[in-house]
Fold these 4 entries.
Entry 1:
Amino acid sequence: MIILGSKLINAPIMSLQTGTEVALTERELIDPEDLAIIGYDLKGPLIRGDVGTFIRLADIRELSDLGFIIDSIDEFIKPSEVVKVQAVHELGFQLVGIDVRDEKRKKLGKVIDYTLDTGGFVVQQLTVRRPLIHSFNDTELVIHRSQIIEISKDCIVVHSEAKVPEPSRNEVPGAYVNPFRKTRPMSEAELTDER
């Protein structure tokens, strides 16, 4: 399922152990290497006043209409407890608010939201608010992840022209084959068989 990333901020974390809400997501932690969400920083009354309480995506059972469902608050960690989480946490990468530029370094705007696939929690598209001068024609741009060339802490560089992927043709066994659509020329043997 595709969902806006902003819908998952301030989302409830529900515990199966207590049957209640135990926290809220505060911000996502995105790995800038592949734009995958690895977890969420948390806030809430059950968070023991500690700064940096975190839930890894691997510890979430499912995402439902109620919010994220986990087994218990024992799933909460500190970022320093997992090496990969600590490394990404220390980068401080924030996707929302980052500048987007084309390959000629011309500013296209700032990221205001993104869509992600809940199957793997990978960012699929960026929603970019255009600068005031350019916003008369287009107020927002939607940029697919395949257009991204480079990601740094300060900006995301994208191709200025979208490349439309060619649709793939899947042949169904036993289906009618149009002889005029063959990709290779017919051989002599095939020509004599048809006569």
Note: The domain at 99-158 is CATH 2.30.30.240 (SH3 type barrels.).
Entry 2:
Amino acid sequence: MFNSKKHRNKTEKAHWSKFTYFGKETRAVTKVFRNTRIKVTYSTNNTLEKLLTKKHHPLRDKYDNSRIYQLTCPTCSKKYTGQTRMSFRTRFQEHLRDFRHENGKSSFTQHLLVNGHDAGPIEEHLTYHQQR
């Protein structure tokens, strides 16, 4: 005996739709497609690659981050606070370059040049604040 419903389901091609999975809300929305020809597949933004390359991942160097930072003069302990979107390391290198070329573009390098203070390695100068 020939079952036309079964036969029709085998010959009709299902269409797939991809949804980013956020939790029970995603399941509730995709439930609408349960009795249709549209099949649902889930994806995630939380991939292993993204987890391992996150800006604040503990395996990365703390100076690779960007946010608010503070530079301290090792000679007199005066502080300069700044904010950057580039890495702390890159921004600190800019300060050092300004110091070496004696152009004093930032308040920090102006302070070092005017007062005859020395610039040292990043560990002597930089503290940073992570956003939560």
Note: The two ends are 66 Å apart (CA to CA).
Entry 3:
Amino acid sequence: MRWSRLVFAAALVAFCGGASAEPLKIRGAYVVPVANWPTILFEKPGLARHYGTSYTFDVVRFQGTPEMVQALATGDLDIADISFTALAIAILNAGMTDLRIIADEFQDGVAGYYSNETFVLKDSPIRTVADLKGRILASNISGGVVDITLRSMLRQHHIDDKHDVTMIEIPFRSMQGALFDRKVDTMSGAVPFSFDPKLRAGARVLFTQHDALGTTEMIMWAARAGFIARNRAALVDFLEDAVRAERWYLDPANHKEVVDIAVRVGKQPAAFWDRWLFRKNGEEGDYYRDPNATPDLAALQRNIDRQHELGFIKSNFDVKKYADLGPVTEAAARLK
């Protein structure tokens, strides 16, 4: 009898030890289809080699990155692709001192790559930033990078962003219509909206984000420290798959297939994507995307310092204290 109990116990231990755990469900976010990696990472079969084994991935759309901070705070989101402005809001305003930068998504204004543009109609009397006084300006969401870019440029030209202009929030997909209907005097262009042929034909660039802020660590992936600690192995697997996919998308040899995927996901014809998507071509190319998904922490520090100088945040901080790049570094090293 005693031997039978020992055999049963050993069998139970072996069964439990051999049973595979459920894959980690990672909840991600995005604002713009195709331009944000989470919308296309899993569109090319065979690249996500750990998907379904150690993790799964669900993605939710947000109007802007500040909304993602709230979702992180409530536990409704695991990885946010947030802007440097949202990072500051999360740490300084929401008290999320456990937030950690884990990977890069893209950078604005790197030499040879795209920088967000602020447009006016071609027949607009607005010729300089000084001409914006008294005008109606469109931003996608208050406190976002586009919003900070506008307000920074205004302040550099001694225009009060609260009293000398009217700022209204309009989703990126609706800005062009508002500009052409003359409901606003400016619109902020971001990839892919900036490359609409109608916009290029009927509008002109007043200034770029680089003009206002220099190079920016525009969008990065962030997660809370507890999530990283609890799920580090699965997170490294996910990041390995993400880096593998990103490198595939960035490879010029795959451009035709990449465009086909963009057509399917972004609901625009091939001609819309072909010229610029994931290409280095200045104002007619894409943002810079690091092939190892490594963020530029030096640029990010300058971005945070600039926000503080302009009075948009109450204090600055050392961004390195809020970065955990170990998982993405390990993930990228697996692919060498």
Note: The CA atoms of residues 109 and 210 lie 5 Å apart.
Entry 4:
Amino acid sequence: MRAWLALLGILATWAAQTPMPALNELAPRFSVADETGVVRSLSDYRGKAVVLEWHTSSCSYVNKHYRTGQMQRLQKAWMDRGVVWLMVNSSGKDAPGYLTSEESRAYLAERKIAPTAMLLDAEGAVGRAYGALTALHFAIIDAAGRLAYLGAIDDQPRVEAASLAGATNYVDRALTELSQNRPVSVPRTEPYGCSLHYAPLKL
């Protein structure tokens, strides 16, 4: 019980440091290098839907989606339709989940993951701007640059691969609705996954 209360206190502290951005408003802008050293800016993708997916390689919730190939298939299906898919690693240097550029490239190749790019957000600026507290936090930005969805990948906050069967995939549904020029019917959900380990804030 004490451990649970301590965890709640930690999450409350992080939430205070990472307030959620407003839905249906212009999404927070960013410019950050990817795994190849190319600087990616949100403004580069105006006119396209953009998915931001917070990722930690050692997270069991993340592994549920990637070891089954489910996430890779989802990424490819929407990227083939013109969606920009940016994975985001907001782990601070020397923190769990931190990867160098070289390690990131090797990791993506080993897992056969092919997003538009993986953003190396070691300073945590992108993660904090979008209120990300967990790996498997998602944000979807519409073609006009507005934040259209924020939350979980689906409605199954479990680590077992069997939970994928019959799950409601909020990201897939939101992208489908946007592609049909419809409003996102469920624009905010509670993200689940593994806690992100940010670098300390610089004063």
Note: The radius of gyration is 16 Å.
